[in-house]
Amino acid sequence: MRIGAVGLGAGAIAAYGRTGDAFRFFEIDPTVVSIARDPASFTFLTDSAAAIEIDVQDGRLGLQSTPAEAFDVLVLDAFSSDAVPVHLLTVESMAASMRTVAPGGVIAVHISNRFLDLEPIVAAAAHANGLVSIIGSDFPAPELTDLADPSQWVIVGRSFADLADLAEGDRWRTAHADGRRPWTDRYSDLIGAIRD
Question: In 100-128, which positions are buried (b, 16+ CB within 10 angstroms) versus exposed (e)?
């Protein structure tokens, strides 16, 4: 598998890497890279069986210079804080992101956020590009609620056939834009995305 990822964090998704897989992370903050590479703090990157590459630059700019169809999966994981990079959620950014994904591949958008409801934003950007999206949530077991937060992901593909392996079961449903105007490079509405 060829996996692209915008947002490094501690590098935890590299733990899923297998021999022969290749991960390319885009991380804007060199301090985050230093922390993720420090074995005294985290070992996800060093312990991964996959080949790991880290580009220290803005994710959208990195994706724009990435060859077409470079990834089987593209992970966008830069939205959990209160400082959401709006330029990664626009119609134009979704188009640039999907250009880097091979046929049959998907974009996985981690939208867990305490302050903003990002489902309609991602769904609207996907729909504006003629793409489809599903949303799934993962809740920690009751005994782990003090140790782990729920996570929520929107998976975007060119067709529901590309999402078929994920869409089975009751964990996933079609993502809805709820009539929201899609964000563009000229328009966004953070106030409208605030959770009630």
Answer: bbeeebbbbbbbebeebbbbbbbbbbbbb
Instruction: Report the distance separating Cα 86 and Cα 22, nearest Å.
Output: 27
- Distance of alpha carbon 138 from alpha carbon 53, whole angstroms: 28
Tokens at 124, concatenated: 């609207």
- CA-nearest of 35, 41, 43, 39 to 15 is 43
Q: What does the pLDDT look like over 27-36, one tens digit per residue?
A: 999 999 999 9
pTM tops 0.85, yes or no: yes
For 53, the enclosing helix (H) or strand (E) is strand 51-56
pLDDT digit string (tens) for 68-103? 999 999 999 998 877 789 999 999 999 999 999 999
Residue whose pair of structure tokens reads 């140790």 in the numeric block: 147
Name the residue type at position 2: R
Please give the C-alpha separations between residue 100 and each of 15, 163, 193, in angstroms, as whole numbers. 23, 17, 27
Q: How many Å apart are CA 82 and CA 71, to the nearest integer?
A: 28
Q: Residue 128: CB partners within 8 Å, gap ≥ 6?
A: 91, 94, 182
